[in-house]
Specification:
Layout: H1 2-22, H2 25-45, H3 51-54, H4 59-94, H5 106-126, H6 130-155, H7 159-180, H8 193-199, H9 201-229, H10 231-269, H11 274-307, H12 312-333, H13 337-340, H14 344-367, H15 372-410
Helix pairs in contact: 1-6, 1-10, 2-5, 2-9, 2-10, 4-5, 5-7, 6-7, 9-10, 9-14, 10-11, 10-12, 11-12, 12-15, 14-15
Amino acid sequence: MIKGSGIAQLMSICALPLFTRLYTSSLLGDYFLYVAIATLLSVGLSLQSHLTIVLAKTKDEAQENCFFALVINAITHSGLYFLLFLIGWLLPFIKPELEIPKLVYLYPLGSFLLSLQLIFEGYLNYNSSYKVMSKGRILRVSLMLVIQILTVWLFGPTINTLILGHLAGVLSVLVYIYICTNPFPDSKPYSGIAKFKNTYKDILVYNTGISLINSASNQLPLLIIKILFGAEAVGYYGMALRIFSTPLNLVGQNIGIVFYKKCAERLNKGNNLRVLLKSTIVTLVKFGVIPLVLLMLFSKPILVLVLGSEWGISGQLIQYLSPWLFLMYISSSVSYLITVLKLQKLMLVYEGFLLIFRITVLMLGYYVFNSFHISVGGISSVGFIFNVFFVYLLWSFVKKYDRGLKSNLYE
């Protein structure tokens, strides 16, 4: 799986020098913002129902959970579209000069496709079908890049060509996975919806709240940066995130998927979790420390050489963001323990405070210092501190869980 995902990530990185010459920093900033909003919507509207798939005890239950997750996403996204069309119909009567931008109608579509990808990949993870997952990701990135590059010569560089490539890429991976393995049951288990709701209530309620606040604290800075500093600043910030996160996500996401499955298996069998958590963190550090050092030391000259002189700003931002993003790469990979140990209520409070502090330092950087760089440095500092605390919390609760297993063994 790492090999396939690595090829996909490498393709994205190799295409960046061409992208920065085809598209302006403002257009790329608007595109990063679109992806951020679509991602945020998918977190809230999916109710994190895809997380229930890996926790299923049988294949039939996993397929039923896929079906219920699909139903949830269809209902919530249809509701959002109905609301948008209703507002669009009412606006001319309230204020004739106002109208909903056409781009807004693409947000729910992007969100729905991303949610479906999480469902499909959740089923692949349950079946350990990592080769299919890897090939799907390569297909997604390939089609996305081809469309985003070729359409420039047909229609010119616009936000529409970027979004079209993104949507086509996600749709292609859905079709490919469905052809390889149908994740849905042959008969529709409508009668099991009550059992599904009762069994996974904490995930549908608290995991959604946690993930929504976490996603908001990661994605809202892009929107606030655009409001305060402009679209170009979003482009520089988004590019910095992409450059740093790509090599680490290559490892972190794949390890995290396997870690979640192993945690669920150990939980079902009553085995300890501390050894697994420790070995996973050690593995993540080993894979991530070299990219961390290289990017902290050489990101600015590398970006100027490869992407162009104006992108040196992104290289400087990478140096500010590196400590936070490195710890987030570790903590996000093992964050599935929240679901396994049912810590959703506690983490809801944690994510709430993180969101408040992130927005606060971002606003202080603008209103007190009028500095984009200080705002970004503040975001990184808050993220670093909170992620250290997060890993400490997970370790403490895993120790508590393992002690409980030992005491039950001697009873």
